[in-house]
Design brief:
Helix content: 40-55%
Distance between the termini: 43 Å
Number of domains: 3
Number of helices: 17
Shape: elongated
Number of strands: 6
Strand order of the largest sheet: 1-5-3-4-2-6
Order of helices and strands: HHHHHHHHEHHHEEEHEHHHHHE
Length: 381
């Protein structure tokens, strides 16, 4: 970046103007008459009491045979030299590069302050780093509808960090991998009625899985994450970015799939699921095996794949509300879960049978530890 170099000693443009008048044998009033301006204008410029406007700069250029830019540059350099510079702006800019500061303050994640030192302390403490120049130490792997080697954003790091801070506040029994099958069976009992979703956090906790709800940050497209506090304490965090029954159950069971297979445990990483419920994953994106496996687990746990495929073969393309409802009742799930899978498979359009895609966020947030939608927990959590 090219920057204007400011000399160690800077003189006001009035001194250069005084030299020009002296060289020509002009009085200040002479120049004022030439410019057609008030006498005080020239006097104020020479004494450094008035800046040079573009109009004045052009007048001086025409009168003295220079360029207007010459006088504007002299004035700008002088005015800049009079400003007392601090590093506050650059430090604040670095903070905003590191994290979504305004949203974090709004959500009560950090303490807001006009004092840069206080704000830096809040941010570094939240991110778990000693200095704002340090990298955030949070090992994770992101599943998203973009290439996997694309780095996560500061907002995604911040969301993950908040999830880590909240997780120990959720009580749960010790986890045993041998009980995951029972856990899935218990969760399936909740899939027929939206209201029953309120029991999901308790059921998960009874089987050793901590679940909490953390509203996503703007532009992050986070749907959920799975990580481990220790070998007996898996954590599932949902963002409920889409308030739809099919999105809730698919995302939750996708994360349960990660727990079932111990994904992330050995490497101590958080599995960050981004845009997991996108309409379609681009063909250019190759998903890791553990993500494909978790997706298949979720789909089959909600409606056995062979049952879904049999229904499609029998009904296609006449997916009426009555037929969907009948199949859903036979499967023991809400009709919205059938519609969600049909939409994702491309069997029906995303505008079809939308009335079945019931909102469920209020049921989840009423019973599970929640941070967001106005339920912002204290900074100390």
């Amino acid at each position: 970046m090219n920057e204007t170099r400011i000399p160690a000693e800077v003189f006001p443009p009035g001194e250069f103007l005084a030299d020009e008048l002296k060289a020509r044998g002009w009085f200040q009033t002479d120049l004022a008459d030439i410019l057609g301006r008030d006498d005080n204008l020239v006097s104020d410029i020479i004494r450094g009491k008035r800046g040079i406007t573009p109009e004045t700069a052009q007048g001086l250029a025409d009168a003295l045979g220079t360029s207007a830019r010459y006088w504007l540059n002299l004035d700008t350099i002088y005015r800049l030299s009079q400003i007392k510079r601090t590093d506050t702006v650059s430090r604040r800019a670095r903070l905003f590069e590191k994290a979504p500061i305004k949203e974090m303050i709004k959500r009560n994640w950090i303490e807001g302050s006009d004092e840069i030192e206080v704000l830096e302390h809040s941010v570094t403490e939240f991110l778990g780093i000693d200095s704002i120049e340090d990298d955030v130490d949070f090992a994770h792997a992101a599943r998203k509808s973009t290439p996997y080697d694309e780095p996560s954003s500061p907002a995604q790091f911040a969301w993950l960090r908040r999830a880590r801070k909240l997780a120990p506040a959720v009580d749960a029994l010790p986890f045993s991998p041998s009980k995951v099958t029972q856990l899935v069976e218990q969760l399936r009992l909740l899939m027929e009625s939206p209201e029953e979703i309120r029991h999901a956090p308790r059921v998960l906790a009874d089987y050793g899985v901590r679940m909490l709800v953390l509203e996503h940050l703007e532009h992050t497209k986070i749907d959920g994450t799975t990580f481990w506090l220790n070998r007996a304490a898996p954590v599932i965090v949902l963002s409920l970015r889409y308030d739809r029954i099919d999105h809730f159950w698919h995302t939750l069971m996708h994360e349960v799939g990660h727990v079932r297979f111990g994904d992330g445990l050995e490497d101590d990483i958080a599995l960050l699921d981004i845009d997991i419920v996108a309409d379609r994953t681009p063909l250019t994106v190759v998903q890791p095996d553990y993500e494909t496996r978790a997706n298949e687990f979720a789909t089959n746990a909600i409606i056995p794949t062979h049952e879904m495929e049999d229904f499609i073969l029998r009904v296609r393309p006449f997916y009426s509300g009555v037929r969907v409802q009948g199949f859903a009742q036979r499967m023991g799930v809400h009709a919205g879960l059938v519609v969600g899978q049909l939409q994702h498979r491309g069997e029906i359009g995303y505008a079809n049978l939308r009335r079945t895609l019931t909102p469920v966020r209020r049921f989840v947030t009423a019973s599970g530890l929640t941070d967001g939608w106005g339920q912002n927990l204290s900074i100390a959590v």
